[in-house]
Every structure is written in structure tokens, then in C-alpha cells.
Amino acid sequence: MGQYKRDKLQMFRDKVIAGRDNAQYEDANAMWEAMADNVKRIARETLGMTSRSLGSHRESCWWNDEVQHKVRAKQERFRELVRCTEDAQKESLRTKYKDAKREARKAVSEAKNKAYREMYKRLETKEEEHDMFKIAKSRERRRQDIGVLKFIKSVDGRVMVKENDIRKMWQTYFSDVFNNSHDTEGIDNSTIRGEAKNNFYCRRVTWMRCRDLLRGWEGRKQ
């Protein structure tokens, strides 16, 4: 097996080196994309493609010795099929691989059904009622977006990780932004006398508009 891997790797290196071209590219990104496509194509042709691994299931409640044995047997039949170079033997090895694959799938299905039946029986009892909530919480965690911000740094440099503290920090920040005028910072309030600057865009008010408004106020006073 080790020599087989070394031969494949050497073949991969030789093909990658032989596949290099001296073409002129517009920029480094175009050159990188061309090289990456070439490497991936040669890797597929030389090393082949692997099927999805079951490594993520090995901590599941249905993963047992029988399932492990069947899956390993299927993987071994697949390796034998890939390593075979004679057409006369390939058909026989392909049949063995299909049989091993069918057996592994059957073992996984039976193990899952058995594990779920036992779990449902436990959920019917009062003592194991909390298992249902553990499953619900686990599914909720898997649905959560891992990109959500879960920490923030306060003004004094402390890192806040609790949701309550983060919410209060944002509340303080926006309160300061919307309620404190930065334009008047450093100016004595006594000189402003309550006057606030209007920094927003507004239409131009003509003297005729002011005259009409004043006349309307005079009429209401009478």
C-alpha cells in the first residue's frame, strides 16, 4: 500500500510539472486560477475521488462494532477495485464491492433503527424526559449561524461574552451616539444657551413664506 501511494504521488508530481505552461496571463489571479484548475484535474485523473467519510458518525449512538466491521470491509473492497489494473479481475472485484456496500448500508440502517427505537422507549419514561430537551437543544445549536458575533470589547478594553452585557454595551453606545452632540463637545454650554445646530438638509425658506406664516399667526391671535 505504501509503495502504491508513493507511485501515485510521483505520477501526480510529474504530470503537474509537465502540465505547466508559459502562457501570458492578464494578472496573477488568472494565472493562479489556471494553475489550480490544472492541479485539480490531474489529481482527479491520477488519485481518483473518495466517497464521503463516515468519520463524523463514529460518536453516534448507532455506531457499533458490527457497523464498523461492515464499513471497513466495504472500504477495503473499494481499494482493491481501484488498485486493480487487469480488466479480467475488475468485474469480479466490482461485484464484491457492490455486495460489501449493500451489506454496510444494511448494517447502518438496522443499527439506526434499533438505536432510535430504544431512544423513543426511553423518552416515554419520566426519568429520561430530559433527553428530549437535550436533543432539541443540540439541533438548535446546529441551526445557529456560527458567524453571529458572540463577543465585544468595552470602552475600558474588557472582552464581554455574555449576551446581557453585550446588549447593554450596544445600548450605551447608541444612546451616546444619538443623545450627545459631538459638534458641541468642548464648548461651554452657557455660551450656547440651548441653541442646537441643524445639521440636516432642508429646503430653502423664502421671505415670502415667512411673511405668509406670520400673517397667519396674527390672524389666530386676534
TrEMBL record:
Keyword terms: Coiled coil
UniProt feature coiled coil, ranges: 90-126
UniProt keyword Coiled coil, yes or no: yes
Protein known as: Uncharacterized protein
Organism of origin: Mikania micrantha (bitter vine)
Higher taxonomy: Eukaryota, Viridiplantae, Streptophyta, Embryophyta, Tracheophyta
